Amino acid sequence: xxxxxxxxxxxxxxxxxxxxxxxxxxxxxxxxxxxxxxxxxxxxxxxxxxxxxxxxxxxxxxxxxxxxxxxxxxxxxxxxxxxxxxxxxxxxxxxxxxxxxxxxxxxxxxxxxxxxxxxxxxxxxxxxxxxxxxxxxxxxxxxxxxxxxxxxxxxxxxxxxxxxxxx
Length: 167
Description:
The chain is α+β, with helices and mostly antiparallel strands. It has one domain (4-164): Alpha-Beta Complex (Cyclic Phosphodiesterase, Chain: A). It is 35% helix and 32% strand. The protein has five helices and eight strands; from the N terminus they run βαβαββααβαβββ. Strands 2-1-7-8 form a four-stranded antiparallel sheet, covered by helices on one side. Strands 5-4-3-6 form a four-stranded antiparallel sheet. Strand 7 (146-152) and strand 8 (157-164) form a beta hairpin. The termini are far apart. This is 2'-5' RNA ligase family protein.
């Protein structure tokens, strides 16, 4: 079974903004995905039914979450937009505790929310992109409306289901 990827859904204006930066700065041959805020990279596909049930329950009791794009993060071989989203970090920690026995080493790590807009480039190119984006970046606040579950397919992800937060 293919692993599952869980993301927070970005609202349309922020999705368009970050997709634009990915289109501009991500190597085209590697840019198979829309901009995304990954919460878990590899949940077990064999547990999909249980994972979906938990996500339904969590989304049903969670209001849309506040987030703020507050800066850029140098990744060595890329650049990300860093997000301040304490309620999202807490929600993700709750899910991580629920799924503790099923997490990969990467997914056991605490969430440091970000959206990668450039990756898999030389460190020199990444620094140049960071400098260019620093000149264009302005903090912005927005609301995360829910979660989305995907199946990892080696390149593009297969969308499986969305879970809207309660209003």
